[in-house]
């Protein structure tokens, strides 16, 4: 069947004021949610020393030489100001049994670190035990990303578990590779 014969949801509408096309944000979010990702928590420290952490699905690889990764953070996130001033941060790639950690660090509350196990990485950013991989990074670049800020990190150090059990996020839900969710 050709694409033109498919019945598509209303994904375009005229913007009366400008005559341009404004996208339907709900449909856009739904379409973007078709892209399955892993789940990560980025961590760093406030200037005062308190830990900072935020759940991410926007993590991705950029370059091997130099070793660069990226993620984006919403301008409304409370963690943003701390990440903007941080010299270094760590990315913790979550195991499929770490859904509770993901939910905890997806809350915008000051108590999110209460009772959470952590160990200091070499750059000082807290590392979450049980994660499938840790990437300790120095801040390489920050870019405007609309209502988000795009962070590029240079990987200084990493470790990786020899297992294959990532937490997956797709269409607004957690999944796992073995189909148990
Ligand atoms: C699976 C998942 C993925 C998320 N990915 C991102 C992301 O990539 N960027 C972002 O800014 N927020 C993302 N969020 C939302 C933040 O984790 C959430 O807004 C958090 O409360 C921000 O905390 P803060 O306000 O204390 O910084 C995600 C949430 C979930 C559950």
UniProtKB/TrEMBL annotation:
Residues 32-176 form the Flavin reductase like domain. Gene3D superfamilies: Electron Transport, Fmn-binding Protein, Chain A (2.30.110.10). GO terms for molecular function: FMN binding; riboflavin reductase (NADPH) activity. SUPFAM superfamilies: FMN-binding split barrel. Residues 1-20 are annotated as: Disordered. Keywords: Oxidoreductase. Coiled coil: none annotated. The keyword Ribosomal protein does not apply. It comes from the Bacteria. The keyword ATP-binding does not apply. Belongs to the non-flavoprotein flavin reductase family. This is Flavin reductase (DIM6/NTAB) family NADH-FMN oxidoreductase RutF. It comes from Bosea psychrotolerans.
């Amino acid at each position: 069947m050709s694409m033109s014969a498919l019945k598509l949801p209303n994904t375009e509408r005229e913007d009366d004021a400008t005559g341009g096309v404004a996208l339907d944000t709900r449909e856009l979010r739904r379409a973007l949610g078709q892209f399955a990702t892993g789940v990560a928590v980025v961590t760093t420290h406030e200037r005062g020393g308190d830990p900072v952490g935020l759940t991410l699905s926007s993590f991705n690889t950029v370059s091997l030489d130099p070793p660069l990764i990226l993620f984006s953070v919403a301008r409304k996130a409370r963690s943003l100001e701390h990440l903007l001033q941080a010299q270094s941060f760590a990315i913790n790639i979550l195991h499929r049994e770490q859904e509770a950690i993901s939910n905890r660090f997806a809350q915008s509350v000051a108590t999110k670190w209460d009772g959470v196990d952590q160990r200091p990485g070499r750059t000082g950013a807290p590392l979450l035990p049980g994660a499938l991989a840790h990437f300790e990074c120095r801040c390489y670049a920050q870019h405007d990303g609309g209502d988000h800020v795009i962070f590029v990190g240079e990987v200084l150090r990493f470790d990786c578990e020899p297992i294959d059990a990532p937490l997956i996020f797709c269409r607004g839900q957690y999944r796992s590779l073995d189909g148990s969710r």
